Amino acid sequence: MCNFKLASLSGLALVANLVSAVTYSVPSEVGTGGLEYYPLDAAPLSLSFEFFAFPSYMTNVTATMRCLENWKDLTGVWPHIRSGGTTQDRALFDPDTDAYVVYYVADPADAPASLTFGPNYMELASEYPGEVTIGLNRGKNQIDNTIAAAQSAVDQMGNLYAIELGNEPEYYSGVQPIASGTWNPSVDSAIQNNWDIIVGEALGMTNIIQAGNSLPSSWSSTQLIESGNETVYQYVKEYSRHNYPGGSVSSLMSHANIASNIHSFDEDVASANGIGKPLFLGETNSVSGGGATDVSPLFGAALWTMDYTVRAAASNITRTYFHQGTIGAAPYNMWGRYSGGNPYVGAYAAVAFMAEGSYVAALDSGSDNYAVYATYGSDGKPLRVLLYNSDYYTSGTRPTESFTLTGLDVSSLQAKRLTAPTASSRQDRGEPATYGGQGFDDGTCVIDGDETWELVTVSGGSATVSVGASEAVVVHF
Ligand SMILES: *[C@@H]1O[C@H](CO)[C@@H](O)[C@H](O)[C@H]1NC(C)=O
Ligand SMILES: *[C@@H]1O[C@H](CO)[C@@H](O)[C@H](O)[C@H]1NC(C)=O
Ligand SMILES: *[C@@H]1O[C@H](CO)[C@@H](O)[C@H](O)[C@H]1NC(C)=O
C-alpha cells in the first residue's frame, strides 16, 4: 500500500466519506503494551470429521490430504483431526469386521441412523501423519464396547491424541439409552466422570479423555469441572465445547459479534486452566445442522472462519476444530469431491497468520467492526499483524478503512490480502476467494495463481494499510 495514494484520496471530499481511519499501536516486544498475550498451539486451526464420513474423506476425496498439507506447508505441523459428532453415538465397535465402517443410507446425503466400525477404522486413522482424537459412544450405555474400541485405538494409533466419551449429551434425552431416567447436566456429569475413570483405568492411561463436548452454556465445562475431583481430572487431557453461532452472514462475520461470542467461553477457559487443562472448541462451524446454503459457503463465512479462529486463540482457546459433515451435502464443508469452498481460504489465511508464532494478542477491544491481532515469535518480536475490516459489502463501490499501525521499528513491511468480489462470493459459483493472489483448485485443493505481496512503507514508525469492506490483510514483519 502506498501512503501517498491514501493521503491524496482522503483529501477528496467525494471519496473521503468512503475512507475512514483507525489507529493501533503494535508493541515491539511480547508482554508489553498492556495487552493480554496467550501461547499459540503449533496447529490452532484443526478439523473435525463426522464419525461415519471420516474413512470416506480419507480414502475417497482427493482434496482432503492436499487441503490439510497446504496448512502443514505453512506451519511445519499437520493440523490435528478429530473424528466424531452425532454418529459417534450411533456407532458400535465390531472387532470382527474388516470394513472401516458398515452402514446403510437410503440417500447419499443422509447420515446413517446406526453403524458399526472395525479395527481398520483405527488403522486408517493411524496412517494420518498428524495427531487424531477419536470420538466414541456413550449414548448407547455399552461401556464394554466403548472400552474395546478405545483399546483398539490405543493399540493401533501411534498418533492418538485423545478419546471422547459421547458427543453433545444434551441431545440424548428420548434418543439414547443412557438418558432413560432423569437427564440434565448434573446427571450427565456424574456419569461422564465415572466413565472417564473406568475407561482411563481399563486403558491404564491418564491424560487421555477429551471431556465435555456440549453446546449449551448450561452444559458448560465449568459445570463439568465443578462436579469432578482430582481422580477424574487426572484422566482428562482437555475440555471441549462445541459452538455454532448461526445467524445471517452479515451478523456472523461482524467482528463485534465474533468477539462477544468468543467471550462467552471465558469462564470455561478459566475453569479448565484453573485445573491445568486447556479448553478447545472441539467441534464448531458457522451454522448447526450441516450449515446454511445462504451463509456457510459464502466469503463472509470465510472471514468469520479467519477472525473466529484467531479471536479464540487470542482468548486462550488452545485449538479450534472446524466440523466437516456428509460429503457433498453439508454447506459448511470446506471442500468436497468436485469443488472447494471459500471458507477454506479464510482458514488458510488464519493458519498463515499464526504459523510458527509463539504468542498472539488482540490489539482491538472487540467493540466495533475492525479487528487487529499481532503474533510474536519465540524471540518475543512481532511476527505478523492481521487487519480485518468486517463492514459488510455486497455491491456498489467498495468502501475502505485505513488501518494505521504505530510503534514500528522496521523500514518496510510486506502484506498478503484475503479478498473476494463480495461478502456473498462462492467459489462454486465462479467467485473464488484469494489470499495473496492465490486460490485453491476445485477437486484437488492444489494452490493456484501468482503469489502477490504488497509493499507497506513505514515512515516515522507508522504505516497505513487500506482494507476494503469485507477484506483482511496479513502484514509480515
Ligand atoms: C468410497 O466411494 C465408493 C463409491 O461411492 C463407495 O462404494 C465406498 O464405500 C467409499 N468408501 C468409503 C470408505 O466410504
Ligand atoms: C471423585 O469422583 C469420583 C467420580 O464421581 C468418585 O467415584 C470418587 O469417590 C471421588 N473421589 C473423592 C476422593 O471424592
Ligand atoms: C492458557 O492456556 C494454557 C494451556 O492450557 C495454560 O498453560 C496457560 O496458563 C493459560 N493462560 C495464560 C495466561 O497463558
Automatic annotation (TrEMBL):
PANTHER family: BETA-GLUCURONIDASE, BETA-GLUCURONIDASE C-TERMINAL DOMAIN-CONTAINING PROTEIN. Residues 373-474 form the Beta-glucuronidase C-terminal domain. Pfam families: Glyco_hydro_79C. Keywords: Signal. Residues 1-21 form the signal peptide. InterPro entries: GH, GH79_Enzymes, GlcAase_C. This is Beta-glucuronidase. It comes from Zalerion maritima.
